[in-house]
Fold each of these.
Amino acid sequence: MPYLLNLCYLLLLALVSPWLVLQALRTGKYRSGWGEKILGRVPVRESDAPCVWLHAVSLGEVSLIASLVSEIERRHPDWDILISTTTLTGHALAKTRYAEHTVFYCPLDFTWAVRRAIERVRPSMLLLVELELWPNLIAAAQRQGAKVAVVNGRLSDRSFRGYQRAGRLARHVLSQVDLVTAQNRQYADRFVQLGAPAEAVHVVGSLKFDGAETNRANPATVRLRELAGFDPGDVVFLAGSTQEPEERLAIKAYRELSALHARLRLVIVPRHPERFEEVARLLAASDLVWERRSMWNDEGGNPLVRVLLVDRVGELAAWWGTAAIAYVGGSMGERQGQNMIEPAAYGAAVSFGPKTRNFRDVVAALLEADASVVVHDGEELTEFVRRCLFEPSFAEALGARARDVIASHLGATSRTVDLLDALAHTGSSPASPHRTAA
């Protein structure tokens, strides 16, 4: 089976290699880390301390694990923590956010690459964030004696159907996982249906809630507010994690409403760095006076400029703390939503488009509490911003309810680390009221 997988991976790599080369030339992606990815030449761990290897694929997962890393550090300051990623942006953020830990690209699931990586890292525990079920990596970790856990586990409808088609392979892989901490009961039941041992699957909630900052006076947000020259009377409308055509819709809303509200400011944070230039061209073609975040020094920008393009990776979480009115992007196209927890935790008046399948539980909780608004097009987005501007009591109440929803879902990090501690000390996860039924 491992050699058949190697063959399949090689064929797939050969098929996509022209596209990878094109992307590398056009965007700079996929240029680095190939020694780690193909050959498993990850950094050698010198210490003999217990070691947790966390694999977080991309930008979202890297941000997600912040509370988990902090809690492991607090409880076990003597443990080594290593973090692997797959994407360029995820790697860049991890190097910045977890600078005190070793960060590297995860090897692709070739037997030789994962075997060498495991030998060099020597993990006590391999933590796969959300759903990274790589058969050869998991098998290599177990042969080395490491425990394997899926943390913040989720199985979307699409992923569940895909793993069902994988049949015996999915069952075999999941049978080797020692622990699954699932975000909700539905995901937990799906893991069990696919082959995870029922006694290993626990419902703990989502780490996404615990990782959200709630204090607008946090140092990162305060610094950005000062750099931007935001005054107390300014009303910041922030469109974050945006994709085409969401920037255009936000600009249209701002242009219409800024004539009616002189203190309105617009901040746009595209989801993908490769679109920074595209959005810059869009703003350049408008009649607005705007600035790029990347052009600022530590003294800040021009406070008279009312429109800002944030073309820096890893700052969005802090920028949300400046926003009174929020639109969470990736929700009017095929992306199926981005993280709306962060602006909700700050108490912003939160809106998003109708396509939010990736965050359906969060969306359901917010909508049930009347703590967010779904906007279906540019006209509805403009109307939402208008109402927030001219009915401040509406915006304040919406934000307060959103903050309460987030507060009611806290605690997944502590429950997750409780289970990881039990796994580390006893070799199995304990019986728990959060465990799913068989």
Amino acid sequence: MSEALSSASSQRLRRIALGLDAGGTTTRWMLLDCNSAHLAEGTAGGLSGLMLHSAHGIERLRVTFAEISAAVAAHLPADASLVIAGGFTGVDGHSPELAKLIAEAFAIAAERVRIMSDIEVAYRGAFKPGEGYIVYAGTGSIAAYVDESGAFHRAGGRGVGLDDGGGGYWMAREALRHIWRREDEQPGAWKDSALAVAMFERLGGSDWDRSRAFFYAKDRGEIGMLALAVRDTADADPISREILRGAGIELARLANAMVARFGVKPVAVAGRASKLHPIIEATLKERLAKVSLTYLESTAHEAAARIALQRVEA
């Protein structure tokens, strides 16, 4: 085929954008056509850039990308020219390794894949540079600000082993810490705690070996899901309410860190953990009384798809 014919053929292809929002618990994807019309969306298992550090993690990335690729293929028109952008937890910027794995799964050139941190994608879905701050709480937690020059600034997001206060993992850890400290002091006290009963039901048993095996063997997304036991017992257990209020305080701290550094601006709150219970929202409003506070629905996968349409070279 001549170069001119090849170029003409390429121009007839219809650009389709796939946006990925990968968190520790769930990965969401959305497919948009060249006019930003919605074609399809779906979910897959949780993913993280941290998985690149182990052979098991890399294999899980490959399997999940293959799963998403198969789901997406059912909605791609025959004349599709696919471009992809993804926001990943555990990534601070572009990751050639992730781009390569995604490109292989979708059989496209790695240059057609753009990788960003999940929080930067979420920010760009909520604000233009310089407009405001975003506080995101999922399995972990972080606050972000993209200034007028496009520079990315953060508070928190140091990982669940170090901090990530107010995220799902943090709430689960706080609950288990309280439960087992009380057991140290009064063995069997868990039977009188709505939180402990709900937690042990999720763990499948009340013995320490069961808690230890789960907490130290499961991935952070699975551990973060234990925060649902805190939510479900808030009406019955004061410790659950204390943890939820603590989560709100931690998330407000992230926003206030940004305000102290860059001045008062609107704050957008996103992520499923931030919406886990009204106590968290009430505490945030109390601690951020001087700023405009809004809650966002999870649209980061759509924001990623729009970034793919705008920024990834065809």
Amino acid sequence: MKILVLTPTYFPIMGGAEIGIFEIYRRLALKHEVKILTPWPGQGTAGDYGMEESAFSHSRLDLLRFNDRINLKSWPGHRLLGGLIPPFSGSWIRAALRAIRDDRPDLIHAFYALPTGLAAIIAERRKKIPVVLSLIGRDIPGPGVPPFWGNYVRTVVRSISKTIFISEYCRRALFGADSDWGEVIPFGVDIKKFRPDVDGHPIRESLHIPRESKVLFALQRLDRWKRVDVLIEAMKSIVREMDAFLVIGGKGPENNRLREITQERGLSSRVIFAGYIKEAELPSYYAMSDLFVFHSTYETFGLALLQAMAAGKPIVTVNSTAIPELIVHNQNGLLVPPLDSEELARAAVFLLKNEAAMKSFSTEARKKAMAKYDWQSIADQYEKEFHRCLK
């Protein structure tokens, strides 16, 4: 099978979407011919994300790069109009048609309806090539997503062969609570890389955290939708109960404000900002922690939660958006109301003082990750849907 992948984001940009696309296609490329069409990243991107261009290279994955100059999604006025102007990309249409002409694919797999949706519709309708669309993130209705975008996404979904949602939450957000439109296939985790027996002591030592101290680890992009300030507020109560540190991994626009809040609350010695953590170091960060904590007001999936599960970490997080699809309350973690720092603190303290619950949650988290989210299983599910589209 010849597969042309359309994605507006790929390495060296580093995030859950990029990791997911790579993990799926490095497996499918063992049996199929795969070309990935993606724009050139901005200058300096690799340095910003702490990785080199070659860090996730794969000999079987052919990258086709182009300059995405005619992209209405990047026009600064579109948000002022509530997203009324369709945020599609003319450059995508031209690049996709060129890739189709040069190497006629059997199937096109597009990630994100915006800005690739119009190119996907043209490929399906004019070129008669079946298109599978994966909806995995920020074109799903939610905070910060312009109101009209949902209409454009639904138009794309109804115009192509198959849609795959990364979570049930994403499907409901677009088509309602009772919808059975498309298929739900989550992203996965490398269960051999993220596992409970990794040695985290060198990371603790590098961060100057005593061995006897409890460590809470948080990993996310530092943006306003995550509300990492709630985790910092929770630490005020946690440190009154025990000797504990909070290690925050990730970068983002809220970085300076969060550091200021930490200083104002007198927690500078207890909250450590680790910044961007390289992929190779992530398993050791999970391993050095006793508890994984995660706060987000808008999550279409939650790859960091899944990594923590595979690492066998007990989890305290919030009952919000797609998070309960991964974390079942009192089974592999505790769910608290969003924006409630006191409830989050109480849940964290309860677990850290309850060895039996910690052990039980750790076992269940690892078991669920292995049973449902191994990357090979996810890739196999995608391949099965592709074959269905070609029948």
